[in-house]
Amino acid sequence: PVGDREAVTRVLGSQLQESELQAKLTVQEALELYAAFYPRPADWRALAERLGLTSMLKKRFGVLSGGQKQRLFIALALIGNPRVVVLDELTTGLDPRARRDTWEIVEDVRASGVTVLLVTHFMEEAQRLCDRIALIDNGRITALDTPHGLIARSAGATVISFTPSGPLDDEELAALPALTSVEHKNGRITLSGTDETVNAVIALLVRRHLTAHQLRITDATLDDAFLNLTGATS
After folding, report:
1. What is the pLDDT of residue 90?
2. Fold topology of 154-220
3. Whole-angstrom Cα distance, residue 156 to residue 140?
4. Taking the CA atoms of the chain, what radius of gyration do you get in angstroms?
5. For the chain, which residues make up each domain, given as ranges?
6. Half-sphere exposure in the Cβ direction for 40 (13 Å, CA)
7. Residue ranges of the ABC transporter domain (predicted)?
8. What percent of the chain has pLDDT over 70?
9. Band of pLDDT at residue 190, cut at 50, 70 and 90
């Protein structure tokens, strides 16, 4: 990057965590201005259409909502036709609807063949958008894998909770494969284990001709993986 800054600029686009434009600059003016920075820019009109900006081309930056500003910054990051785009804390401060709309835009960008490097603290966002995830703790990469791979490596438990239609023997429950814990509360049973445990519980209920009321199965999440793999407690 230091040796050939211009070459890097041609292939790299970025959206920073904190970005601002002049409040009186319109969306169209911003797109035209940034397009002028590149020898072979993308068609800003097509980009505006793709990102849902066409109806707000005459709007000034200062009156845009948070979600609209993020759409514009994504467009500005893509206007140089980059092969790689860095999106830094893309949805921080957005409401749930705007956040999900932005996720759909990122999915479209990725599907177009652009490599997306996403920086985020939202595990749900990373799990939905990323093919590979690097977990960073205190400035160091502690794990690098697919979302599913990280969850599997974290040894996070699958939890199955239900109220049986009849009594279950504690010895039968204790004999379930890969079981790590059993809890009884107000007639409800909560078990921790793996997918193997879940299958064994279902088989046990069938053998005993019992029904599992209010059955709930919860898998480990990327949040669990982060906490387990980094040793974080808060």
Report:
1. 84
2. Alpha-Beta Plaits (3.30.70)
3. 22
4. 24
5. 5-131, 154-220
6. 4
7. 6-91
8. 96
9. very high
pLDDT at 228 over 90: no
220 against 30, higher pLDDT? 30
Residues 211 and 205: beta-carbon distance below 8 Å: yes
Confidence band of 234 (pLDDT split at 50, 70, 90): very low
Is 60 exceeded by the pLDDT of residue 176? yes
E-assigned strand segments in the chain? 12-15, 84-88, 115-119, 133-137, 140-145, 158-164, 181-185, 188-193, 212-218
Q: Rounded CA gap, 152 and 221, in Å?
A: 10
Indicate the pairing of strand 84-88 with strand 115-119: parallel
Tell me which CATH code domain 5-131 carries.
3.40.50.300
User: How does the average pLDDT of the chain come out, rounded?
Assistant: 89
Q: Are 41 and 79 in contact (CB under 8 A)?
A: yes
Q: pTM (2 decimals)?
A: 0.70
Structure tokens at 79: 């206007």
DSSP annotation of 166 = S
Query: How many Å apart are CA 90 and CA 164, to the nearest integer?
Result: 45
User: CA-to-CA distance for 43 and 90, rounded, in angstroms?
Assistant: 23
Q: Which residue in this structure is represented by tokens 């079981």?
A: 179
